Amino acid sequence: MDRVLSGMQSSGKVHLGNYVGALQNWVKLQDKYDCYYFVADWHALTTGYNNPAVLHDSVTDLLVNFIAAGLDPDKCTIFIQSRILEHAELHLLLSMITPLGWLERVPTYKEKQTELSERDLSTYGFLGYPLLQTADIIMYRAKHVPVGIDQVPHLEISREIARRFNNLYCDVFPEPDALLTPFPKVPGVDGRKMSKSYGNAIYLSDSAKEVEQKIRTMTTDPARVKRTDKGDPELSPVFQLHKIFSTKEEQAEVAEGCRTAGIGCIDCKKVLIKNVFSVLEPIWTKREALLADPDRLHAIAEKGNEKARKVAQETMQLVRKAMGLY
Ligand code: TRP
Questions:
Q1: Candidates 75, 112, 286, 307; catalytic one
Q2: Which of 114, 226, 246, 297 could bridge to 242 as Cys pair (CB 3.0-4.6 Å)?
């Protein structure tokens, strides 16, 4: 079985966008591949180094949601990046052979600095973000990396660095490829991309009441002010969510009702609430069970960490040997 690896940065709570965009896909892959999934807590530090409390809580939230979303610790390996110190060693060793220009040219570097301009991201660690990601990936000699389209430049640099290592020393690393997640961007409650930094996210840890409240107050077609106004569903983020969570028949019904003013926005939202609930309810049940049993959660992470560490140690033996460190 080919190896698959992916990680999620622990810089906040898991939201529906993460679920639909990543976790659901990870769950599918665990039956077909030898999958390694991890919490990227060091990556979270590259931008969130001044908020250790958020980082700490977020690691637990991610772990709980990985499993609540359907990752099965008997089928895949779930681990925490910072518990595998070999990632730091590989990151350091790769830094010796990584030209600065390669890192400076990664488009996400400048983009993120602009997007998060209130933070000081002129750090060494932030520039090295894609290099740390490269270490994560090639450590497990992973073939496929399921990610969203925004991560493609990081996969590109991972391949270049793997190639450079193999050329300079000897063949240790296969070149990983991106397994693009076939899912549209999930809009948040204000129509922009769902993101914790926009404050528009529905979290897996939200209660039923909170989810209902968030959907009920969502923006819709701004031109549809009164109940009797006709609307254009394509201009409503509620309809974008219907496309993800509702059946084709329901989508057709609410679209028609919106265009003809046959239904009101609240009627339309009620259908969405019902469907989002049916996705979240099994997750809520599993979350509760896990949160009530921290020992079990701890044991799952420990088992995954150990398994990951074994592979990482094997890789590092090859790397050290190749670089003259023996
Ligand atoms: N950069 C990824 C993200 O923001 C997280 C990540 C870190 C990752 N290391 C990885 C993803 C390795 C895939 C493989 O989502």
A1: 112
A2: 246
